[in-house]
C-alpha cells in the first residue's frame, strides 16, 4: 500500500483552507493545518479523520514562523508532497490615495512575500524528493482587476507571476507549481472588500458580474486544489487556474 501524501495547508482554520484540508484528508492524506489562530487550526484538525493531521500556528509572512512550521512537518513526516499556500488577506475597496503605505506593505507581505518565503523553504525539500506540488490561492483579480483594489490586485498579480517563474525553475525536478484564481468566495471575508456591509449585500453586488450567477464556494476551490495536486494533473504546471464562474472572460 502506498504511503499517504503529506499535505501542508496555510490559512486552514477556516474557509478555503479548511475545506481543502478536509478534502485532502478524505482522500487519505495527512494534513498539516497551519493558521494564525491556533484554536481555529485545532478545530479543523478535530474535523479530520483521527490521526490524519495536526495544527501549527504561525504567521506566513514571518520567515521564523515558516521555518519552524516546515521543520516540524519534516520532523514528523519526513516529506512534504503538497504545499498549498492559501493564507491571504483582503483589501477594502477605495481609491489609491486612501491606501496607506502600511496597509500596502501588510497586504504584499501576506499575499505575496509569504509565497516567496514558503517556496524558498519547501523547494529544496521537493527538489531532493524529485516530486511535489506547490499550490497558491491567487485571485481572478490578478488577471482581471476591479477598481479600487490596487494593493490586493498587485499582490495577486504578483502571485501569479511568481507561480509561473517557479514552475519553470522547478520543472526539471518534477515539481509542479500552479495558482488557483477564485472569484469572490462565499465566506465572511467577502464583506471585508467593502462591497457591502453584510454578506447578502456583498453577494448582491458580486453575483451579477459572474456569468454562472453564483459565488465561488470553499469547496469549489478545494476540488480544484485536489485536482491540481493529483496525478491526473501531472502535465499541468505554471497555470492560473480560473475557478470563477466565467468572471475572467
Question: What are the SSEs and their pairings?
Answer:
Elements lengths: L5 E5 L4 H12 L3 E6 L2 H9 L6 E5 L5 H15 L4 E4 L15 H29 L2 E6 L12 H21 L4 E8 L16 H8 L11 H12 L10 E4 L6
Parallel strand pairs: 1-2, 1-4, 2-3, 4-5, 5-6, 6-7
Helix pairs in contact: 1-7, 3-4, 4-5
Structure commentary:
By secondary structure, the protein is α/β, with parallel strands linked by helices. The chain contains seven helices and seven strands, in the order βαβαβαβαβαβααβ. Strand 1, helix 1 (15-26) and strand 2 form a beta-alpha-beta unit. Helix 1 packs across helix 7, helix 3 packs parallel to helix 4 and helix 4 packs parallel to helix 5 (150-170). The protein has one domain (6-230): Rossmann fold, CATH 3.40.50. Strands 3-2-1-4-5-6-7 form a seven-stranded parallel beta sheet, with helices on both faces.
Number of strands: 7
Mean pLDDT: 94
Supply the number of helical segments. Answer: 7
Order of helices and strands: EHEHEHEHEHEHHE
CATH architecture name? 3-Layer(aba) Sandwich
Please give the share of residues in helix.
40-55%
CATH superfamily: NAD(P)-binding Rossmann-like Domain
Unreliable segments of 5+ consecutive residues: none
CATH fold group:
Rossmann fold
Our estimate of the beta-strand percent is: 15-25%
The separation of the N and C termini measures 43 Å
Amino acid at each position: 500500500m502506498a504511503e499517504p501524501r503529506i499535505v501542508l495547508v496555510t490559512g486552514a482554520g477556516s474557509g478555503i483552507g479548511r475545506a481543502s484540508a478536509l478534502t485532502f484528508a478524505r482522500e487519505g492524506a495527512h494534513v498539516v493545518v497551519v493558521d494564525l489562530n491556533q484554536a481555529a487550526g485545532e478545530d479543523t484538525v478535530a474535523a479530520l479523520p483521527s490521526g490524519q493531521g495536526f495544527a501549527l500556528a504561525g504567521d506566513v509572512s514571518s520567515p521564523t514562523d515558516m521555518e519552524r512550521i516546515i521543520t516540524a512537518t519534516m520532523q514528523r513526516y519526513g516529506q512534504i508532497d503538497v504545499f498549498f499556500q492559501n493564507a491571504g488577506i483582503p483589501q477594502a475597496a477605495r481609491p489609491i490615495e486612501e491606501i496607506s503605505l502600511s496597509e500596502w506593505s501588510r497586504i504584499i507581505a501576506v499575499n505575496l512575500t509569504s509565497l516567496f518565503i514558503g517556496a524558498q523553504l519547501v523547494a529544496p525539500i521537493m527538489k531532493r524528493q524529485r516530486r511535489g506540488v506547490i499550490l497558491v490561492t491567487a485571485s481572478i483579480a490578478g488577471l482581471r482587476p476591479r477598481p479600487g483594489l490596487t494593493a490586493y490586485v498587485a499582490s495577486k498579480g504578483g502571485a501569479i507571476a511568481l507561480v509561473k517563474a517557479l514552475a519553470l525553475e522547478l520543472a526539471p525536478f518534477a515539481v509542479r507549481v500552479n495558482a488557483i484564481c477564485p472569484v469572490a468566495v462565499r465566506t465572511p471575508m467577502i464583506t471585508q472588500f467593502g462591497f457591502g456591509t453584510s454578506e447578502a449585500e456583498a453577494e448582491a453586488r458580486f453575483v451579477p458580474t459572474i456569468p454562472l450567477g453564483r459565488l465561488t464556494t470553499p469547496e469549489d476551490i478545494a476540488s480544484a486544489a485536489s485536482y491540481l495536486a493529483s496525478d491526473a494533473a501531472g502535465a499541468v504546471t505554471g497555470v492560473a487556474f480560473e475557478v470563477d464562474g466565467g468572471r475572467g472572460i
